[in-house]
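Notes for week 9. Today we move from apo structures to complexes. The key idea is that a small molecule is not decoration. When we ask for a structure prediction with flavin-adenine dinucleotide present, the ligand SMILES becomes part of the input, just like the chain. The input block below holds both the sequence and the ligand string. Read it once before you look at the output, and try to guess where the molecule might sit.
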Amino acid sequence: MDERLALDNAREICLAASRAGMTVTLDMEDHTTVDSTLGVLRELRDDFPWVGVAIQSMLRRTEGDLRDLVGEGSRVRLVKGAYAEPSSVAFHGRHEVDRAYVRGLKLLMAGDGRPMVGSHDPRMIDIALALAAEHHRKPDSYEFQMLYGIRAAEQRRLAADHTMRVYVPYGADWYGYFMRRLAERPANLVFFLRSFVSR
Ligand SMILES: Cc1cc2nc3c(=O)[nH]c(=O)nc-3n(C[C@H](O)[C@H](O)[C@H](O)COP(=O)(O)OP(=O)(O)OC[C@H]3O[C@@H](n4cnc5c(N)ncnc54)[C@H](O)[C@@H]3O)c2cc1C
């Protein structure tokens, strides 16, 4: 990836977002892109301190990254991770990834930033709520995020007293984006089909 080009384009997006009173959160792609994405984040935050980033609990490096991202004003979307990664860099078993997710939640909820809980997993959501209470967090100091169309009733329930942000792919390229996401990891197809039949 050309980091300079990414940074220039991201700056334009952030400028438009700040004019519209919105925020921007950087997606995270596979593990080879983490250093450059965090580099872009650092540069953007000099001018736009509200820029956030997605961090994947499945990556072994994540706890270290999170420790650098728990300061005041830091916005972190904690997700499990959607990529098929080698075991040299990532946890593989579901329980290992979940345990790493909980460790990430603990760091974020204890920190001074704004945790963004990017998961549909009822257990992770319950644990996030319990940790927020334990750290005396106000409901407006953290938020939940889910994909459009998945667990819509749960989204409405959480929205009653929290920010519940919904991720919506849009624009002319949404189909290519969607197919890439399915191709990256077979489990994504199961995830999508389950949400389709459970609506
Ligand atoms: C806002 C957002 C942004 C994201 N951005 C990124 C990113 O930048 N990079 C990246 O790698 N990944 C990203 N992801 C994807 C993420 O990494 C996971 O692959 C995805 O969210 C699935 O993991 P999960 O935590 O939701 O639950 P899973 O571990 O997939 O599911 C756990 C449990 O959740 C419940 N559940 C799941 N789906 C349903 C359903 N349809 N109906 C009922 N219960 C269900 C079930 O109990 C299930 O057992 C993002 C996800 C979200 C929500």
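The mean pLDDT is 92.
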